[in-house]
């Protein structure tokens, strides 16, 4: 019996050890797989890509100009969203001399998504596509170390890097607002030209993909000559400016080393708020516009303008023709509105009291007055036109109530920046309390600009009194929001009047009896989308066209309009001499 119990206990122990060994093996396998995955991230060939299943991945067509068949394989450019395509990685694994012209063109087309790559001229773009190699690094990897000699030139294809002043880049993860470079940025090109030591450390904030140009290839394929041409253009631009007339060539080349050229097409957004930008911008070619997103509901002029036009609504339904007043009635109505708070009953009462006192009698009667009575010098009594109560949703603002639909905004042009002007220095030496903190938008009209970080520029002008005196004269003040709102309302009134006048004077073209049927163009844009119609402000039906809204900092989105359509007098009443259509001025 005792022997049987020992045998049974030994079998249980073996089973428990087997389960323990199995669990231990599973844990070890999981750890090994995790280490294997983490280790592979340092290799350029590693990339997890979900294979796309295409029924016909390749297609071709006959090119009549070249008299040959052109074939395109879609599988060559399939990649995980945002990552560099595997086909392009295979091309970049080849030596530069082994890459064909078609492969270089294909890589050049893929790199057009990088803004810094587009800023170079086409010959330099092709040379870069020929010598680039692909690299991927993980988080906290130091790419460039401060104080070391530069050996490579980097383009960021995916991810984010930080620029710091320490050696290991650890301060980037502690700083709440580090200097960051994102996809499309580049760094390190000037370090290859002058063989100077690196001034800062660049560290990866996340897994980042780079396109790298090494020093050997940079000089072997004469990329230095093309880069030197761009640097010479920046030097000549700065030399022509009066601001840098007193600087030596050596100091000016230091400015060129920290400056970069960027190109922007027509209508391209440069900065959502260049006041808070960390760059100083020199317009080298073309021009830009400074815009301001104006909240009209915060302007006293807009409040007054809206309610003045809503008073024109009479008891009849909206969008109907307003009753035509005679010139005399219109003049009296103007008198009433001009003196809405004048009440002369007290003066009349005082006059009667003095008259009765002279006659030796007493006066104790009451005089009935009304709000719409006028003194005799302003003519007979008339009744002011009653104000229609607006039945719509109201909102409370700092200036009073306003219809909810009338709380809109508009983009207003503030200033046009021409070639040779500077942005980012107009508030440099102003006291802290006098800084204009309003956000201003910078929009390109087809321009080329040179950007310099403010901290780099401050280091160069330190202890330069002559330069500081010149910068003090560059202070430009932008108009207030109230002035811009008044200008917007004046332009809107003029546009409405001009449109009404053209409709009155120009004879409409007679349409044919059987007009051809035209298909409606599909699109989301509608002219009514950017016009605020105060005449239909109390309608409950929702508009059938889209409404465009712009985001605001710490505030809800604001509807954007380009014009305002409000109740108004007919133009025949304002200009009686043009009551008959067709009369020319």
Produce a short descriptive summary.
By secondary structure, the chain is an alpha+beta fold. 33% of the residues lie in helices and 21% in strands.
Q: Any overview of this molecule?
A:
The protein is α+β, with helices and mostly antiparallel strands. Among the domains are: about 140 residues, Jelly Rolls, CATH 2.60.120; about 110 residues, Jelly Rolls, CATH 2.60.120. Helices cover about 35% and strands about 20% of the residues. It has 16 helices and 21 strands. The strands form seven sheets. Strands 11, 12, 15, 16 and 17 form a five-stranded antiparallel beta sheet that branches. β13 and β14 form a beta hairpin. The chain is extended.
Name its key features.
585 residues, alpha+beta, Jelly Rolls, 5-stranded antiparallel beta sheet, 4-stranded antiparallel beta sheet, 16 helices, extended, cNMP-bd_dom_sf
* Rounded Rg: 37 Å
Shape descriptor: extended
Helical fraction equals 25-40%
Structural class: alpha+beta
Work out the helix count: 16
What is the CATH superfamily label of the domain at 86-221? Answer: Jelly Rolls
Could you tell me the CATH topology label of the domain at 86-221: Jelly Rolls
What are the low-pLDDT stretches, counting only 5+ consecutive residues below 50? 41-55, 315-323, 362-388, 581-585
Strand content: 15-25%
Number of strands: 21
Distance between the termini: 129 Å
Mean pLDDT: 76
- Major sheet summary line: 5 strands, antiparallel
- Under CATH at level 1, the class of the domain at 86-221 stands as Mainly Beta
CATH architecture of the domain at 86-221: Sandwich
């Amino acid at each position: 019996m005792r022997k049987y119990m020992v045998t049974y206990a030994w079998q249980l122990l073996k089973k428990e050890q087997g389960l323990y060994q199995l669990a231990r093996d599973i844990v070890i396998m999981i750890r090994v797989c995790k280490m294997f995955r983490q280790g592979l991230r340092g290799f350029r060939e590693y990339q997890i890509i979900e294979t796309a299943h295409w029924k016909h991945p390749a297609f071709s067509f006959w090119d009549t100009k070249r008299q040959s068949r052109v074939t395109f394989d879609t599988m060559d450019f399939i990649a995980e969203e945002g990552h560099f395509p595997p086909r392009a990685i295979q091309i970049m694994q080849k030596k530069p001399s082994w890459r064909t012209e078609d492969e270089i063109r294909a890589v050049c087309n893929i790199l057009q998504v990088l803004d810094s790559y587009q800023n170079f001229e086409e010959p330099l773009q092709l040379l870069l596509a020929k010598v680039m190699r692909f690299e991927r690094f993980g988080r906290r990897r130091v790419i460039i170390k401060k104080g070391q000699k530069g050996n490579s030139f980097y383009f960021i294809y995916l991810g984010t890097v930080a620029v710091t002043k320490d050696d290991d880049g650890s301060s980037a993860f502690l700083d709440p607002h580090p200097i960051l470079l994102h996809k499309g940025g580049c760094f390190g090109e000037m370090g290859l030209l002058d063989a100077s030591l690196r001034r800062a450390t660049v560290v990866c904030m996340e897994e980042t993909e780079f396109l790298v140009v090494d020093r050997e290839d940079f000089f072997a394929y004469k990329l230095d000559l093309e880069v030197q041409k761009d640097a010479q253009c920046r030097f000549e631009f700065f030399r022509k400016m009066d601001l840098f007339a007193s600087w030596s060539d050596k100091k000016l080349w230091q400015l060129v080393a920290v400056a970069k050229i960027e190109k922007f097409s027509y209508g391209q957004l440069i900065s959502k708020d260049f006041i808070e930008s960390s760059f100083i911008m020199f317009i080298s070619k073309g021009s830009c516009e400074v815009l301001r997103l104006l909240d009209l509901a915060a302007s006293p002029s807009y409040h007054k303008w809206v309610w003045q036009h809503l008073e024109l609504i009479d008891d009849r339904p909206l969008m109907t023709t307003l009753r035509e007043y005679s010139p005399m009635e219109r003049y009296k109505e103007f008198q009433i509105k001009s003196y809405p708070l004048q009440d002369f009953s007290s003066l009349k009462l005082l006059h009667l009291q003095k008259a009765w006192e002279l006659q030796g009698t007493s006066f104790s009667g009451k005089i009935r007055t009304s709000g719409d009575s006028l003194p005799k010098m302003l003519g007979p009594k008339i009744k002011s036109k009653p104000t229609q109560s607006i039945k719509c949703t109201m909102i409370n603002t700092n200036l009073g109530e306003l219809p909810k639909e009338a709380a809109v905004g508009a983009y207003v042009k503030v200033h046009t920046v021409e070639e040779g002007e500077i942005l980012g220095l107009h508030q440099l030496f102003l006291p802290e309390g006098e800084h204009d903190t309003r956000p201003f938008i910078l929009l390109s009209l087809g321009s080329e600009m040179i950007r310099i970080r403010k901290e780099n520029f401050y280091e160069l002008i330190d202890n330069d009194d002559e330069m500081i005196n010149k910068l003090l004269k560059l202070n430009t003040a932008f108009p207030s929001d109230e002035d811009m709102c008044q200008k917007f309302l004046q332009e809107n009134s003029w546009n409405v009047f001009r449109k009404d006048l053209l409709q009155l004077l120009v004879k409409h073209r007679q349409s044919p009896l059987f007009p051809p049927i035209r298909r409606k163009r599909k699109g989301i844009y509608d002219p009514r989308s950017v016009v605020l119609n105060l005449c239909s402000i109390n309608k409950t039906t929702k508009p059938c066209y889209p409404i465009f809204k712009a985001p605001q900092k710490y505030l809800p989105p604001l509807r954007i309009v380009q014009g305002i359509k409000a109740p108004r007098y007919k133009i025949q009443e304002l200009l009686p001499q043009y009551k008959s259509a067709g009369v020319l001025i």
